Amino acid sequence: MGVSAKLPLDGVRVIDLTRILSGPFCSMLLGDMGAEVIKIESRDGDPVRAQGHHKDGLSWYFAGFNRNKKSVVLDLHTDEGKAALTRLLEGADVLVENYRPGVLARMGFSQARLEALNPGLVTASINGFGSEGPYTERPAFDFIAQAMSGFMSVNGPDAAHPMRAAQPISDLIAGLYSAFGIVSALRGRDRDGLGQHVETAMVNGALSFMAYLASEHFVTDRNPVQTGNDHPLVAPYGLYETADGQIAIAPSNEQILQKLLSEIGLPTLMQDPRFDSNDKRFARRAELHDILDAAMATDSRDNWIARLNRAGVPAGKVQSLQDVFTDPQIVAQEMAIDVHHEGHGNVRMLGFPVKLSRTPCAARLPAPKLGEHTDAVLSAAGVSPMATGREIS
Amino acid sequence: MGVSAKLPLDGVRVIDLTRILSGPFCSMLLGDMGAEVIKIESRDGDPVRAQGHHKDGLSWYFAGFNRNKKSVVLDLHTDEGKAALTRLLEGADVLVENYRPGVLARMGFSQARLEALNPGLVTASINGFGSEGPYTERPAFDFIAQAMSGFMSVNGPDAAHPMRAAQPISDLIAGLYSAFGIVSALRGRDRDGLGQHVETAMVNGALSFMAYLASEHFVTDRNPVQTGNDHPLVAPYGLYETADGQIAIAPSNEQILQKLLSEIGLPTLMQDPRFDSNDKRFARRAELHDILDAAMATDSRDNWIARLNRAGVPAGKVQSLQDVFTDPQIVAQEMAIDVHHEGHGNVRMLGFPVKLSRTPCAARLPAPKLGEHTDAVLSAAGVSPMATGREIS
């Protein structure tokens, strides 16, 4: 099982017209799996190069989402730039873009032209609402997708306060679905030689994460209710007070609930006529919460977490990012990695959530300087240096 | 571009030992892409068969996450059941499981044995914390993963109230990453004939969704702050009051902010010395919020949404699921589909977030009855009927 085996997407060339987050996250996932990702940038570069905190002139946000990519500067408003892109697409396996629907076609690269140029090309679009329907022309943004997808309607403390997740979840979900769709389409292409178009919309992706909340809606025609950290159907469940802080407890069935109650010194509570069914426990949720808080005030959070997990009860603490990255489990999983950037030293970024045993993902390249690979990539593709305005790089 | 072309994962056989949500979501994604998914169930079946609202004896939650699968009942506590599983694995391309780390090996299917049985097998594990590190033996649950990954530390109204997302995000993120990893590993296998192990942990997946919040933490060593629906760095941004309800507005740069202010009748606000920089606007966020609310009280929510989007300003409303599934865009995107289940009529479920142009995903099979395919699958694999206790089906 030599780790010198080639990565799964080794030999796949991705032309990446994306910027900001959803698309660059997708192309980073492809690069992490071994693809050669050519990030095409205007002379101003991806706006994220200027966003977030900088250190020694480098945005760590940009660095963290553009590893394993090469940067080529092209002015796609010029015929020369379009000709260079055309040449690159002829030799590529994948094109990824996150313009609004229609923009790429107006630039001269309709789906029909792309298929004519390269029938094996997998073309992927990530956008806000999809390219069919009344909202296709609307500008998209993560916050709006969270609002319109139903995500916010159940996130937050109560029905009067719908709330976005602070994380840009609709960007990330769309990027991840797109990567899955692209690799699937590549596998289809490997068999019959034909590419196809892969489209992923932020609203659709966020909506798909409603999961069983959507199933329940379909079967009951009711909207799911917001319950904050409580479970909409089960009690006890949620955050409880210990001697020195809160812990999250999620006993997912009655057997595990009995283990919890035994461990916290209330072994007969499920025989109490007030609490002898989930319906009763749910109806008296506040009262039950107080009883559990009182029982757990007798020991520290860390001790309870150890004791409950030993007993088979899912339990943990709410961790800040400072907690997370010093947590020995997260350290063991290498979920923060340091990548050397020439002239900037090591830049810390998130590690790889998908662990492959034989061909593990690695940071083979740091995030590129703007236009760093313009000469090398265009020369190899036979594009004349004069044609592209690459003095910008 | 005939749509009769084979789906990307046509011919891929997945043996699916998963239950509840993270694993079944992953295997459904593979099935939607064309894989043949053989869901192995105990005689009691996946617990989700008994969860959620039922209609005519069918859980719509189960139906919605188990389409495009076949069900085979095996008792894996018996030698006969293990022998049948062995035979199935010899002829499979993928094994997916979401037991706690070590459980499958204790059942007799260590990674070494699986490789010996079938060197081309891609084996995928979805678990809570990963199989290396101090917490590998802990029971996992979505709520705990949300707490420990940092997700809850920034979700919610303020720092005193960390909050889970109501959606089972860590299950879904892990399932989606796993599907991406599996298809990638399959593509590697198509080249060199060798499978490998693909592991995805719920905590790692949820942590990866901290995205630029993690980047900012790494570069500043500070924890991100909770800001509810406000943006941590930019104002205005958030939910605003119109004549008849709230709208979400996200002007992502100053050009778009100027478009917003012009459209709502405040074209010179950015020249006001109180608001002529983002820093000032951010410092006077509450005051600015009141000014925007007053300006937008002059028209209805739907009108503002139309006007602002026409002007290029991302804007939308917070939609409940009832709103979502009557939204003409969601309808156009076919994000709710009806699948006929024999004896149960049509069951409504979420559609396909990844749209493939040439080989679109489809519900080729409804969710299976428990053991519905036991005879057919085992007979085809040459397993003797007497050996499996399949009378249970």
From TrEMBL, chains A, B:
Transmembrane segments: none
Gene Ontology terms, MF aspect: CoA-transferase activity
Pfam families the record matches: CoA_transf_3
Keywords tagged on the record: Transferase
InterPro entries: CoA-transferase_III_domain (IPR050483), CoA-Trfase_fam_III (IPR003673), CoA-Trfase_III_dom3_sf (IPR044855), CoA-Trfase_III_dom_1_sf (IPR023606)
Cross-referenced Gene3D superfamilies: Crotonobetainyl-coa:carnitine coa-transferase, domain 1, formyl-coa transferase, domain 3
PANTHER family per UniProt: SUCCINATE--HYDROXYMETHYLGLUTARATE COA-TRANSFERASE
Protein name: CoA transferase
Organism ancestry: Bacteria, Pseudomonadati, Pseudomonadota, Alphaproteobacteria, Rhodobacterales
